[in-house]
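Why do we bother with holo predictions? Because pocket geometry can differ from the apo form. Keep that in mind while you read this record for magnesium ion.
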Amino acid sequence: MQPPLVLFDLDNTLVDRRGTLAGWAAGFTAQYGLEDEDQANVLDMVAERAYPSTFEAIRTQYRLPVSTAELWHTYCTDIAALVSCQAGVLNGLEELRAAGWRVGVATNGAADIQRAKLRATGISERVDGVFVSEEADARKPQTRHFALAAARCGTVLGDSGWMVGDNPVNDIGGGRSAGLRTIWIGNGRSWPPDDPGPDHVVPHARAAIDLLLLHSVDYTRTAA
Ligand SMILES: [Mg+2]
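The structure, written out:
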């Protein structure tokens, strides 16, 4: 029997991306002498899509005296320094693996920044595998994204797989289409009423981990 698999989204699931970006945007606009309204605009642009092309647009709009490559590199370094993962969540990833789970990260985004965050927070060394969409041009909610993430964990998508994330379409809809059971991280929101619901709703990642640890008892029984 193959080990149960759980894939976690990264941003606003394992780490607080919104809070990290707000702090970064404040520092960035202070560094370049930009106004408050510019800070809000820069934050919106990066929150929407953080790739080198985003920084090309920011550099042009604000006539910044540095190269796009330098802006992108500094962004990756700064964000890695600011981001953190709660100790209870880091410990939880280890508890899941000790209970026999294969644990992976399935995230959309640019490989540079997502991998920098995973290393800086200590998540990298506590999971079996990571897949970042840019690495094979396969974004959630495509099933191929989840299949590649499972492969990075040395396994395949199957009946005993789970997806945990905060995005109703990418994580929950995509996870369900890929044949996974789903846990939605509400982050204080309520589920969009028109969408078919996830299997479980929890307030934060640690609660999702506790739920999975309860399920691992079932898997152990099934295997026995
Ligand atoms: Mg997310």
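DSSP finds nine helices and six strands in the chain.
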